[in-house]
Amino acid sequence: xxxxxxxxxxxxxxxxxxxxxxxxxxxxxxxxxxxxxxxxxxxxxxxxxxxxxxxxxxxxxxxxxxxxxxxxxxxxxxxxxxxxxxxxxxxxxxxxxxxxxxxxxxxxxxxxxxxxxxxxxxxxxxxxxxxxxxxxxxxxxxxxxxxxxxxxxxx
Length: 155
Fold this sequence. Notes:
The chain folds into two domains: 1-43; 45-148, GMP Synthetase, Chain A, domain 3. Helices cover 23% and strands 30% of the residues. The chain is built from three helices and seven strands; from the N terminus they run E-E-E-H-E-E-H-H-E-E. The chain has helices at residues 45-67, 112-118, 124-129; strands spanning 8-13, 16-20, 29-31, 75-85, 91-102, 134-140, 146-148. A four-stranded mixed β-sheet has the order 4-5-6-7, with helices on one face. Strands 1-2-3 form a three-stranded antiparallel β-sheet, with no helix packed on it. Strand 1 and strand 2 form a beta hairpin. Helix 1 (45-67) runs antiparallel to helix 2.
């Protein structure tokens, strides 16, 4: 079994933790929760999960595009989560939405259809999270043309 390495969390104060990823030269990341329980001194667990999904998708898409000699690749991803309360009133992430916008028009990319057809399958984090949480992904080119995913509200 492969391992991600060891991440060390140290309680700093309140509910704020310093997260040490064990990477030389990489400073610890402070996490916290929003008031009234915390002081919002850093991202909370929900934001970290959403960031991990978006980062994995964006990285996978950039890799897939580069594989077909599309370099450099301009890419901006935005992500959000829908929080709902379960039957016990506890907050749960119901869905994660990710939109990615390429830095050029679709016509400027080599083998774009191939890259779009395969990038999501190689995203370890997203494919793992999808087992429990709906993940909606849309990819646009620089002109706003929807290249992959569905328009909001369509089935």
